[in-house]
Amino acid sequence: RAKENGRNNYQLFQSAMNKQVTERLALEHDLRKALEREEFVVYYQPQVNSSTGIVFGLEALVRWQHPTRGMVSPAEFIPLAEESGLIVPIGEWVLRKSCEQVKSWQRVFPNLRAAVNLSARQFQSDDLVETVARVLRETELDAHCLDLEITESTTMHNVDRAISTMHGLKQLGIQISLDDFGTGYSSLSYLKHFPIHMLKIDRSFVRDITTDEDDASIVASVIAMAHSLNLHVIAEGVETEEQLGYLMERGCDQMQGYLFSPPLPVEKCDELLHFINKTRVGSTG
Ligand code: C2E
Ligand code: MG
Ligand code: MG
Ligand code: MG
Predict the structure, then answer these.
(1) Tens digit of pLDDT for each residue in 172-185?
(2) What confidence category does residue 22 fall into, taking pLDDT thresholds of 50, 70 and 90?
(3) 8: CA distance to ligand 2 center in Å?
(4) Which of 90, 149, 181, 220 lies in disulfide reach of 199, CB 3.0 to 4.6 Å?
């Protein structure tokens, strides 16, 4: 009896596994076609200077407009793209698209910056620096207006190589931000060796900042530490006035979150930028 049950469970397990595998393969198959079918869309989320309220930059966040599944979030397909290597051409597409877009917005808002996420695989690819340089040349975006966001875990794989890649990017004039800061396992002692410009405090710490004392003190110390290393700090996922208040009080330089704006498609972002007084977009503040 037990044996039979075990067998049934095994079969159930197997068919569930098969279903999962089939599902994944189907998604990966679609992902392969998605670039040529132009199914990706870039949304832009404003990054705001805390003290002046100026929108200094826009973070590019990719979405997949799947023909039958609807809008697929990056949390679902980026890991798959990463494993299959498809993230490299997808990431280059996102980079080119957002450089083009921000370059075009700069006709109205001259100092507007673009922030683009790099996945581990992209960051570790041999020709990253060359690729970024080429995209900048082709889109005519000034390298000084581009921020590349990498996560701590991306750098941990091979720290020395990561540092040299960061230097290569920095030499182009690009600024590097450390995304999702606090969620990785990087040793703080590496931080001072990284030629980075900014720390992005992960949303998970910001969320409970006004209710959880531990999160509040973690955030306060990250801000203080960043400043002592001459790094700028941006808080992700700012949703309430209370969070904003706490962050301002602690001297957090920049903010991003639904309180200001969710990520927006080009037309909506364009409306928003024009709605805000021109002098309050893209100034160096
Ligand atoms: P991320 O780079 O840390 O981006 C921040 C995420 O938080 C975005 O989710 C954004 O929509 C969301 N967010 C922003 N403000 C708020 C807020 O106030 N509340 C809440 N609850 N969420 C907020 P999204 O767009 O789903 O992207 C998720 C992740 O996918 C990104 O995290 C990034 O790691 C990755 N990703 C997105 N686009 C790209 C891309 O072009 N290339 C690569 N490699 N990764 C990307
Ligand atoms: Mg990011
Ligand atoms: Mg982040
Ligand atoms: Mg995050």
Answers:
(1) 999 999 999 988 76
(2) confident
(3) 45
(4) 181
Q: Which ligand is nearest the CA of 148, by number?
A: 2
Phi and psi angles of residue 112, each rounded to the nearest 5 degrees, phi first? -60, 140
**Is residue 162 predicted with pLDDT exceeding 90?**
yes
**pLDDT higher than 50, residue 285:** no
Specify the ligand 1 atom closest to the Cα of 202: 3
* Contact status, residue 144 vs residue 173, Cβ threshold 8 Å: yes
What distance in Å separates the CA atoms of residue 160 and residue 191, rounded to the nearest whole number? 12
CB 74 within 8 A of CB 61: yes
Q: What pLDDT score does 113 carry?
A: 98
Ligand 4 centre distance from Cα of residue 223 (Å): 17
pTM of the model: 0.93
Compute the distance from residue 200 Cα to the ligand 2 centre, in Å.
Answer: 8
Is the beta carbon of 79 within 6 A of some atom in ligand 1? no
Centroid of ligand 3 to alpha carbon of 278 (angstroms):
27
Query: Best substitution site from 65, 102, 117 to test ligand 1's pocket, by max atoms within 8 Å of Cβ?
Result: 117
